[in-house]
Amino acid sequence: MLFNSYQFILLFLPIVFFVYFYLNSKRLTEVGKYFLVFSSLFFYSWWNVGYLFLIIISMIFNYSVGSALGRRVLILGFGERVRKSFLIVGVISNISLLVYFKYSDFLIVNINFLIGNNIELLNLALPLAISFFTFQQIAYLVDSYRGETTEYNFLNYALFVTFFPQLIAGPIVHHKEMMPQFSRKQTKIINYRNIVSGIFIFSIGLFKKVVIADSFAVYATSGFDIATSLNLFEAWISSLSYTFQLYFDFSGYTDMAVGLALLFNIRLPLNFNSPYKATNIQDFWRRWHVTLSRFLRDYVYIPLGGSRVSSYRIYFNLMTTFILGGIWHGAGWTFIFWGALHGGALVVHRLWCELGIRLWAWLAWLITINFINIAWIFFRAREWGDAVKVLNAMFSLDDICLPSSLFFLFKFMPEYGVKFGDWLSAIDGDKITVLMILLGFSLVLLFSNSMQQLNNLKINYKSSIYSVIMFIVSFFMINDNSIFLYFNF
């Protein structure tokens, strides 16, 4: 079941909303929590009921270990040494589960290649959201070991893990952000301002996904997966289409998650803050997928030593952190290379800052957005060949094609190998495609982002009409075959 589906919008959400608040109105607050957990698990199992058992066992295991660690139970009288052993076992168990389902075939393929074996692939289906709920629970274990958790009620913990707005693709929430909210009395009473705000931001997210992201997806898919060759402009439009598709798809999902949570009086953390306005790569990672960046910083980079060590160790920590971030996104060398590119960019940025040289803001932005766009090519490509195909065309002057309508302005260009004709035929593009790219840049650069709009929201006729129009347009453009990109991770 998708947020952008008729089943979810017309059936699941209204039923869950009204039953949950009805139970709370009758002071059946515990029953209301059980119902919300049950509904979230139903939402999760809609794709594959077989993996329902997996998430339940994962929750029971992590809650048990986390409770022991958080309460500082002196297991068998051995004290801190045993607590640390429990933490290690808990973290390794979570990572092992993730490795088994997500990376087994990738490891087998590489082992077969290295030693010439022919080990059979497991062909396991990737359990939905396993990357997200695994990281979320690892953070809980680490914080429990540090003595930073105070919640030891399994029902609240289960709600923290499974809460359906953020379960599938984040944000990666922190226990101290969520658990206190579930316990507040105000959470259990219908808040009409939160309802209006929630519908407002949900409508923006739905519009981002079904109107903008899915429109860019057509050109990205054609360029990366269908076309066997691309000319210069087709390659650039393909890469930029994916750059915008990914942003509007994932930020759209997050907006919808934020809006849905607000309906239940829950505030999810900021996950996007106009990342394509960034003027350096460090700034980008402070704005893009903020909760993942926070996790990698707090639970990988800082434990490795962070910035408190020698320069060479800092560079090593940055590379390690972002290579792991790349691996987290997918089982493939293209993801690893994407992570290494970003780690390397952060190293270069740190070295540049030490030189004390400052660039003009527009030039810094241009370098940053082009690096991001090029790096996304490896993130998107199914195989190395797809990435090479797009990159070669982007930086080759051997195949330049312009619209026929420009021939009279540039009659001399054929002498230099420039052709005129169907200049975007390989990706089924036209003049509208170019306008969409320009519109994409305008939306991400010139306007306030959705969270800023939410924080500054004034509930009046203007905002209501704005919200209703976006929702209606999006509702009638819903495509049953559309799926969120981050469901693959």
Please characterize this protein's 3D structure.
The chain is globular and about 80 Å long. Helix content is 67%, strand content 1%. It has 489 residues and is mainly alpha-helical. The chain starts with 5 loop residues before the first helix and ends in a 14-residue tail after the last helix. The relative contact order is 0.11. It folds into 2 domains: 6-190, no CATH class; 195-488, no CATH class. It contains 19 helices and 2 strands. The model has no long low-confidence stretch (mean pLDDT 91).
Question: Gyration radius, to the nearest Å?
Answer: 24 Å
Given the structure, what is the number of helices?
19
Give the low-confidence spans: none
Major beta sheet summary: 2 strands, parallel
